[in-house]
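job 3f2a | input accepted
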Amino acid sequence: MAEGQWYVAHTYSGYENKVKVDIEKTIENRHLEDQIFEVCVPMQAVTEIKNGAEKTSDKKLFPGYVLVNMIMNDDTWYVIRNTRGVTGFVGPGSKPVPLSPEEMVSLGFGVPEGTVLHEKKVVIDFAEGDTVRVISGAWKDTVGRITGINEKKKTVSMNVELMGRETKVELSLSDVRRI
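job 3f2a | predicted structure (179 res):
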């Protein structure tokens, strides 16, 4: 059996999952399982911290695009190109260009299991210089100004007043809330 290559189909924004489902149905109905192998919408886990609450959700890595592993021929090109919501393939003119193996590895495909390529992204709703209130722990109800944020450790550094002097403390992102 021939080996397919990964191609990128451009879709209307917000239609990526619908396009994926429609292509998979067409593959099944037309018995193209031996020519179109996989359809995927690359996702990334994102952790957002708002008002001290941590929430993890999946976000599309490339909004408006769907990856398709297939053998490119007239039939497979026609099926993908004429799926509702698909505006075309990525490539010059009407000629689709497959992704290189290096590009696929950078996206996390074809990587040995256990290798981390895309770390979780953390979205924080405050920045250095913001005034925040500590909502839990030993410093509860203390107000201070953020002097630094460490996204990897999920902590903030801030100055608080202790016995008339400013003291630097490090707290968890979930322990502070913007005023």
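job 3f2a | The first strand starts at residue 5 and ends at 11.
job 3f2a | closed
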